[in-house]
Design a protein that fits this description.
- This protein is an alpha/beta fold.
- Helix content is 38%, strand content 19%.
- Helix 2 links the parallel strand 2 and strand 3.
- It is globular and about 60 Å long.
- Probably acts as a heme chaperone, transferring heme to an unknown acceptor. Binds one molecule of heme per monomer, possibly covalently. Binds 1 [4Fe-4S] cluster. The cluster is coordinated with 3 cysteines and an exchangeable S-adenosyl-L-methionine.
- Keywords: 4Fe-4S, Chaperone, Cytoplasm, Heme, Iron, Iron-sulfur, Metal-binding, S-adenosyl-L-methionine.
- Belongs to the anaerobic coproporphyrinogen-III oxidase family. HemW subfamily.
- It is found in: Cytoplasm.
């Protein structure tokens, strides 16, 4: 069960934005997120807004989805027509499993973005994929359509861990899909999850080393969070699965950081490592830096000039609203004042570039010395070594990033 949508103001049926959204738009990057809400099976830990074919009623199907999403892209073109024209610098297709759609449908969605907003020179165009949802031919077709990057949901290289997560792919397929993608000219990222019930430290080491053995230039590693309402949460509550301790999670993060750094991948966000700046995920960096993006699809969130809105969740309701010529948005809010400052700190401090101390209020700046003394922030960066004074997480600080944010925003 995916989480409920937040409360918010009722948006207008045409999706029009307040005039404040245009302020400073020319200085902000613009990206597009395309949500594909379909999976062949639902993993027990997943709380994303995704559906299997048997969960969908009339009016919503994988076969018609591209046409439906293209209607929202057209709407987005009309809504943003009053803002300074900005081609999309990044496009990210997520899900779900986007590659359950035929490559031709994904190509049509990308062409819709290109014809509506344009693509900036050198635009980054990513799709997520499961290792068992691609072939050499499908990856080549995506590259030919203009995709530049693929992010594979590897999660683990250990069969019993994948079984607990209810992932369906064979881990032996990982080197193959990485090679196929590279042969097609695509950049490749592998996504890993640590802290699955029953996963040992040696299991986790094997997963990280297997990912590195493929030679990929980008790895994401996320701690498993068991969300309420998921199948795994029920299993934990019934005592069928035991969650790892915080110390176990910390040890796995530190092991990953050591192994990735030794292989030449540097952290640039708490959960992301890249071989060079060119290998970083620019789309996600745009989120963390507070740029603008339009989110297409059921349950997708958008943000333009401090205005954030979110779409209705179910594919059928989403399709029905667009067929009636209405915006699919269910609610929206203007992020300003203390809420905007909280987000700025919460997201900015996670980056390896650090958060400028000038972005903190006077009281927050006085707490920096204590965080340095506690080993959570880098002392040299706080004093301005190499540039402006910054709040830069140490590795211990990365493990306790939420506590650092609380201290800087209380």
């Amino acid at each position: 069960m995916s989480p409920a949508l937040p409360d918010g103001d009722v948006p207008p049926d045409d999706g029009a934005l307040p005039g404040s959204a245009a302020q400073g738009a020319a200085e902000r990057a613009f990206g597009v997120y395309l949500h594909v809400p379909f999976c062949t099976v639902r993993c027990g830990y997943c709380d994303f807004n995704t559906y299997t074919a048997t969960e969908l009623g009339g009016g919503a199907s994988q076969a018609s989805y591209a046409d439906t999403a293209l209607r929202e892209i057209e709407l987005g073109g009309r809504v943003l027509a009053g803002l300074p024209p900005r081609p999309a610098s990044t496009v990210f297709v997520g899900g779900g499993t986007p590659t359950v759609l035929p490559p031709g449908d994904l190509a049509r969605l990308l062409e819709g973005v290109r014809s509506t907003w344009g693509l900036a020179p050198g635009a980054e165009v990513t799709t997520e994929a499961n290792p068992d949802s691609v072939t050499p031919e499908s990856l080549a077709a995506l590259a030919a359509a203009g995709f530049t990057r693929v992010s594979f949901g590897m999660q683990s290289a250990v069969p019993h861990v994948l079984a607990t997560l209810e992932r369906t792919h064979d881990p032996a397929r990982i080197p193959d899909v990485v090679r196929w993608a590279r042969d097609a000219g695509l950049q490749v990222s592998l996504d890993l999850i640590y802290g699955t019930p029953g996963e040992s430290l040696d299991d986790w080491r094997a997963s990280v080393e297997t990912a590195l053995a493929t030679g990929v230039d980008h790895v994401s590693a996320y701690a498993l969070v068991v969300e309420a309402g998921t199948k795994m949460a029920v299993q934990v509550r019934r005592g069928l699965l035991d969650l790892p301790s915080e110390d176990d999670q910390a040890a796995k993060y530190e092991l990953a950081d050591d192994l990735l750094a030794a292989a030449g991948l540097r952290w640039y966000e708490v959960s992301n490592w890249a071989r060079s700046d060119a290998d970083r995920c620019r789309h996600n960096l745009a989120y963390w830096r507070g740029d603008d993006w339009w989110g297409v699809g059921p349950g997708a969130h958008s943000h333009v000039g401090g205005v954030r809105w979110w779409n209705v969740k179910h594919p059928r309701a989403y399709a029905e609203r667009l067929e009636r010529g209405l915006s699919p948005s269910a609610g929206r809010e203007v992020v300003a004042g203390e809420a905007a400052q909280l987000e700025r700190v919460m997201l900015g401090v996670r980056l390896a570039e650090g958060l400028p101390l000038a972005d903190l209020g006077p009281e927050a700046r006085t707490s920096v010395a204590g965080l340095v003394a506690d080993g959570l922030l880098d002392g040299a960066a706080a004093l301005g070594a190499g540039g402006p004074r910054r709040a830069l997480l140490t590795r211990r600080g990365r493990l306790l990033a939420d506590a650092v944010v609380r201290t800087l925003t209380d």
